[in-house]
């Protein structure tokens, strides 16, 4: 693939910030959208805008076909056995909360526990903590090693007959550590425990086949894989369909009302009450097309190379600690140091046109497990270049010198 041609598809990469050419390295939070995705979004609202599953006029039928085509494409993208396993949501957060309301609350009876890891994003941590708090369950957090790896021995002990779910991220959004999802699912299933996978950080870079993995639930967001915000999906394995209950009530999720009681639609529609983000779903479909046209093999190879190069350059800076010890993995590198506060460093980088993330990245337990209160995160995507990485690290080094001088140290 020609990286110059790829970059031409992303118009925002040509803009300037504070008089400097933009170097966008906050892709773990949100990726940029190619022109093809932007075009699909505007064309839908310019030419085909109508509600779905509601009418028989031409525009409604076109919109409905587009949405269901996107569902079928999403099913193929993650290896789901059929489109009925795909529920459209507003993102990973909404997907996890849907599992809480539509499945877990019905399963949380008597004495129960839910197991999650210390590397979870808050989206896959807080809903389970809240459920245990409300229902009197035991919330078990699996610790991390000092290099950010999951303690599988502790996990094995935590999976008991009372455990109703194991919630785990595919890729850490702090260290970039990639979990052995297939191995973790197999371990949980050997104890009779269903597994929910947060694939938000993995879906752009790594091939996912839910059928091969054996996942019970899987969640992801379009805005982390070249699509718009406000769109995501929830995969539900067919074996759990009969355990689901409606979690929202409204239009489109019933077929009739008989004797004063609703007759619910089949999956996935009875979990999709109300009008969905149709234009966003159409754009999400185009994002899937774009990723497939570039190929996830190319994306994984390039992002692995860029991340490895970034780690190498950052490791050469004085008194800068990289969180986690993995040389490969997900495309994010978080750093800490006594020389800077993450917010100060991010602000000085922004003044030089470099966009990075500072703070806890919605992963307080992970930072706490690694003995820090926050970090500065650099997260490249396949459309970034090595020149951009060098520019970012040079800008970071310059920011460190400024902060050293401000603190009374040597320039």
Describe this structure in words.
The protein is of the alpha/beta class and 411 residues long. The chain has 2 domains: 134 residues, Aspartate Aminotransferase, domain 1 (Alpha-Beta Complex); 256 residues, Type I PLP-dependent aspartate aminotransferase-like (Major domain) (Aspartate Aminotransferase, domain 2, 3-Layer(aba) Sandwich), CATH 3.40.640. The strands form 5 sheets. A 7-stranded mixed sheet has the order 4-10-9-8-7-5-6, sandwiched between helices. Strands 13-14-17-16 form a 4-stranded antiparallel sheet, with helices on one face. Strands 1-2 form a two-stranded antiparallel ribbon. The mean pLDDT is 96.
What layout of secondary structure does this protein have?
Blueprint: H1 3-8, E1 16-17, E2 20-21, E3 23-24, H2 35-48, H3 58-77, E4 86-89, H4 92-107, E5 113-117, H5 126-135, E6 138-142, H6 152-158, E7 163-169, H7 181-190, E8 195-198, H8 210-213, E9 217-221, E10 232-236, E11 254-258, E12 261-264, H9 278-294, H10 296-315, E13 321-322, E14 333-336, H11 342-351, E15 354-355, E16 357-359, H12 364-369, E17 375-378, H13 386-406
Parallel strand pairs: 3-15, 5-6, 5-7, 7-8, 8-9
Antiparallel strand pairs: 1-2, 4-10, 9-10, 11-12, 13-14, 14-17, 16-17
- Indicate the radius of gyration in whole angstroms: 22 Å
> What's the domain count?
2
Uncertain residue ranges: none
Terminal residue distance: 42 Å
- The CATH topology of the largest domain corresponds to Aspartate Aminotransferase, domain 2
Assess the beta-strand content as a share of residues.
15-25%
Examine the secondary-structure arrangement and name the CATH architecture of the largest domain. Answer: 3-Layer(aba) Sandwich
Largest sheet: 7 strands, mixed
N-to-C SSE string, H for helix and E for strand:
HEEEHHEHEHEHEHEHEEEEHHEEHEEHEH
CATH top level of the largest domain?
Alpha Beta
**Helical content (DSSP H or I, runs of 4+):** 25-40%
Number of helices: 13
Strand order of the largest sheet: 4-10-9-8-7-5-6
Average residue-wise pLDDT: 96
Shape designation: globular
- Structural class assignment: alpha/beta
Give the beta-strand count: 17
CATH superfamily of the largest domain, please?
A: Type I PLP-dependent aspartate aminotransferase-like (Major domain)
